[in-house]
TrEMBL record:
Pfam families: Fer4_15. This is Unannotated protein. SUPFAM superfamilies: 4Fe-4S ferredoxins. It comes from freshwater metagenome.
């Protein structure tokens, strides 16, 4: 995968209502804290999407009812 195909998943914790759909759809990258809020396994508020998980990441973004997740492409 070239850098043009690589994507980053971003989390805006101020929008999140802890529905947990993202962790169900993308458990390889997201788990829930003790209150049900998502945490990227790698830490921080953004994580690179590994090859092969782009479809799952798109599904998680689409499933978020409050728009707390955003997917960006690397330039």
């Amino acid at each position: 995968m070239s850098t043009h195909d690589q994507r980053t998943l971003h989390l805006d914790p101020t929008l999140c209502d802890a529905h947990g759909f993202c962790a169900e759809l993308l458990p390889e990258l997201i788990h829930l804290d003790e209150w049900g809020y998502p945490i990227f396994t790698a830490g921080g508020l953004a994580t690179d999407i590994p090859h092969g998980l782009t479809s799952e990441a798109k599904r998680a973004v689409t499933a978020c009812p409050v728009g707390a997740l955003r997917l960006t492409k690397h330039a």
